[in-house]
Amino acid sequence: MFQVRLVVIHICAAVLVVGYTNTFEVWQLIGTVVSRDLRNAVPLLVVCVMFVFVAGFLAVGARTLNLTISWRWLAATVVAVMIGLASTDPTFPAKRIHVPQYFFLACVLSLSIRARDRTPWTLFFVFLATALYGVHDEFLQGLHLSRTFGFRDMITNTCGAAAGTFLIRSLKFGKAQASSPPSEYDRPSPWVFVALFVTILGIVQYVMASIGFRFGLVPYWTVLPLLAGVLALSIAAERCSDQADRNALRGIVGICILFALYPMVINVAFLDFA
Amino acid sequence: MLRSWILPSLAALALAVTAALAVYDFAREKPVNVILMTVESWRLDSVTEQNMPHLVLESGPHAFKFTNHRNVSAWTGPNVISLLSGLSPFEQDVHTRGDSVPPELDVATEKFEREGWIVKGLQAFMMIDLFDNLGLDIESGVDIKHWLASRSRDFQPFYLWYHYLPTHLPYQQKFSSLEGLYFPAEEDAPLDPELAARIEAVATQPVIPAGSVAFEEADRRWIESAYWGGVRDFDEWFAEFWRFYRKLGLHETTILVLTSDHGEELLERGNVGHASTTRAGHLHEEIVRVPLYVWLPPHLKGGLDGATFAHPTDHSMIASALRRLVGLEDIPEARQSAGGQPPWLPPVDRDWTALSSIAGYAEPDPDDVTQFVAAATDGATKVQVGVTDGQIVNVEAWDIEGDPGEKTPLSVTEPAVERLTALLADKIASMPSRGEKQGAASAPSPQIVPKWVRPVASGQIDYDDIAGAAYITWSGDDAKRYIVAYEAGSGALALNGEIEVEGNRHDFGEIDKSYWATWILPYGQVRFRVREAESGPWSEWLKLELVE
After folding, report:
1. Which residues in chain B are closer than 8 Å to A223, comparing Cβ atoms?
2. Contacts of B243 in chain A (CB under 8 A)
């Protein structure tokens, strides 16, 4: 059941990301119906609606669901949203929509692991998975005929992912979720974090290399360090004792393996990577 | 112990496949592309820091620069053909419009094409018969940047010839700096009407036949400024091209050759222009000394990032140099260690020679070109001869080291002069005889007279009529060959000739608005008639008045 839930949620997440890649067309459509100023305000309106929804949920949940709120993490949520909005290029107000998009994606991905099974590290792994989907979003845009790949947008996506994760972290549902992990919790081995670090380094290197090869063919070697880290992470993840952590790491591994496809698609189909 | 092998197996598979592809990509032979960029009428002494800051300070220092390079004729056709084919004008049999390299000659660009290069031109004017039989595939109307962007991701190598045209007469500076340039001013007093007319001629006419404008020595200053303005425009255009070229990564895979078809006279002999525009062609230094820059991909540079060479080179050497660079031709053993000079373009091992018809493209009768000018130099002495009906009729010579302006003639009896004159005589005698052209029609037979289909009748045409679709078509069997005769302009700006066409349509390619306004509109009118090539009556003249 764990695996089915994990796979289904990640499939939903992948579909969401593909949808996010194509929201620019919706943006352009909106621009034909309303004024430019109103259109530019749409992402901020979505953020406001998101705030209202969350506030309403918290208010209702506090009374009916035995919801405990960690105000520290809630404040971190707000800060992450603000940083995300501020990180966007002011000349492209449409980019602000990335914040609520990845906020929502983080909330969806947090459902891949049941709340009662989460460990202190689970939500961190979920945050990483969401941020990695944000990197995929930019790579898909790089292949899209009328979009471009942007490092700045990855930062914005990561802020949105952080905001969503912080919100989930700030909520505790009554007695259903233990306030601390069970005493038999076996934290991931240091090798998991070493492999994770290598993987993240590999991603950063891959992103930087892709920026360098913009308008050309992204060579195959650029993704090799990342894949080496992913192989190590996949082995370390399978040796993880805790199932929630193991599944969260499996999600990261699956997302990272997909990065191997971009150089293949670009080099075989001679797609513009821009 | 691993709980599941699925993801580790997938990760290992992804790593293995990608690593194998990376090794294959690294190890495979990457083709080297070639871009031959020629700049119309670009003379060597215009390359200064003030006129060409980008070339002199940014891109040029990374190039192999050849400061003693010469072209081989006084007009575009034979020079470009020499660059592409390696043939000298004495071998080409191309002396005016309507001529082309004999199809039986196997030229360098055809060899590139056979070896798998895409040999391409992107400009409409390249569709004229001058550039036939060179293996060039012309795709007119395609923007060079779009074409290069799509080719940069391809595995098939390309050889692109691009000709920068706006430096041709009329001199029209559009966007570069005016600093240091001189333009006669009108603020204090109206310009002398004759001066104003001369300025107007240089600014608007694509040709200025010798004697049609009475230039004065004092005009040189503003004429040079007007010319340099166009050169400055080119420098800015090239700067943008350079940035795009590097952004695409083409500098890693492409040999870029930048040179000129020929130089330009700026009143040194009383005229402005070159053979095709003055109709008084010559081969003095201002026409034959041209820049040459070669940028190489890193693996061909031999550790050097830019160098300057002063040894003599000329246009007919470029084709072989390119073939050596891409590995299609071996470097002769004697040249392997060329004393510091690049083995792919060593010093020319013979005296430089050049040949031109007097009026170049604009010869009054393309079927009867009898007057030529030829020149030769051994580096110290230069000889220029006039040729009529295959015979040398006059000889001039100069010490070009001591007298680069060629103002003080040497005695024609000097040994070096006599040797070079004899060399030219041999070269002229070795030229292929100009075969009989398909000129006069045989007696017309009572056959169908072609009728014009597009345009259907004489009248006015403007740019909108030809934008995206510049062609003429007529009734008749599209499997036959036809002769289209044309007459354009009048007076000093008159041009006529015949074009042989396969089928009943002739395409002029995609003509942009700037080209239309600058080089076509000044003719004012053009008329065409057509008949079957074998025999047959001419059609009615189709008279077209050219309007903006």
Report:
1. 18
2. none
Is B137 in a helix, a strand, or coil? strand
Searching chain A, which residue's CA lies closest to the CA of residue B2?
Answer: A238
Are A220 and B21 in contact (CB < 8 Å)?
yes
* Single pTM value for the model: 0.72
| Nearest CB to B247 within list A215, A221, A250 | A215
Secondary structure class of B64 (helix, strand, coil):
strand
Quote the minimal CA–CA distance from A214 to chain B in Å. 8
A213 contacts B12? CB cut-off 8 A: no
pLDDT given for residue B439 in this prediction: 44
- Spatial neighbors of B440 by CB under 8 A, at least 6 apart, are none
- CA-angle at A166, arms to A160 and A168, nearest 5°: 105
CB contact under 8 A, B11 and A230: yes
Q: Residue B455: is the preceding peptide bond cis (ω within 30°)? A: yes
Q: How far is A104 from chain B (nearest CA, A)?
A: 27
Alpha helix ranges (H) inside B279-317: 285-288
B2 and A238 within 8 Å at the Cβ level: the answer is: yes
For chain A, the C-alpha Rg in angstroms (whole number) is 19
Q: What is the pLDDT of residue B442?
A: 42
Tens-digit pLDDT profile for residues B206-240: 999 999 999 999 999 999 999 999 999 999 999 99
- Among A219, A237, A260, beta carbon nearest to B14: A260
| CA separation for the pair B122, B149 (Å, rounded) | 14
**Interacting residues of A243 by C-beta distance below 8 A, sequence separation 6+:** A2, A117
Q: How far is A261 from chain B (nearest CA, A)?
A: 9
Residues of A in contact with B11 (CB under 8 A): 227, 230-231, 233-234, 253, 257
Confidence check on the interface: ipTM exceeds 0.85, yes or no: yes
Work out the percent of chain B whose per-residue pLDDT is above 70.
Answer: 95
Choose, out of B33, B153, B248, B252, the residue to mutate when testing the contact with A (most A CBs < 10 Å).
B153
Helix (H) or strand (E) segment spanning residue B481: strand B481-490
Q: Where are the alpha helices (DSSP H) in B430-493?
A: 463-466
Dihedral (CA of A175, A179, A184, A189) sign: positive
Angstrom distance (rounded) from CA B225 to CA B237 = 18
Asked if B19 and A246 come within 8 Å (Cβ–Cβ), the reply is no
Residues contacting B112, CB < 8 A, separation 6+: B34, B119, B135, B159, B322, B323, B326, B328
Is A231's Cβ below 8 Å from some Cβ in B?
yes
Tell me whether A230 touches chain B (CB under 8 Å): yes
Query: Which amino acid is it at B350?
Result: R
Cα nearest neighbour of B252 on chain A: A216
What are the pLDDT tens digits along chain A (274 aa)? 557 888 899 999 999 999 998 887 777 777 778 887 788 888 888 888 888 888 888 888 777 777 788 889 999 999 999 999 999 888 887 888 899 999 999 999 999 988 888 888 999 999 999 999 999 998 888 776 556 667 888 999 999 999 999 999 998 876 544 445 555 677 888 999 999 999 999 999 999 988 877 666 678 899 999 999 999 999 999 998 888 899 999 999 999 999 999 888 877 765 544 5
Q: Is A164 on the interface with B (CB under 8 A)?
A: no
Query: A263 at the B interface (CB within 8 A)?
Result: yes
> Phi, psi at residue A266, to the nearest 5°?
-65, -45
Rounded Cα distance, A129 and A135, in Å: 10
Mean pLDDT of chain B: 90
Q: Which residue has the tokens 């990608």?
A: B18
Task: Check pLDDT > 70 for residue B384.
Answer: yes
Three-state DSSP class for residue B353: strand
How far is B454 from B507, CA to CA, in rounded Å?
11
Contact A227 B14 (CB under 8 A): yes
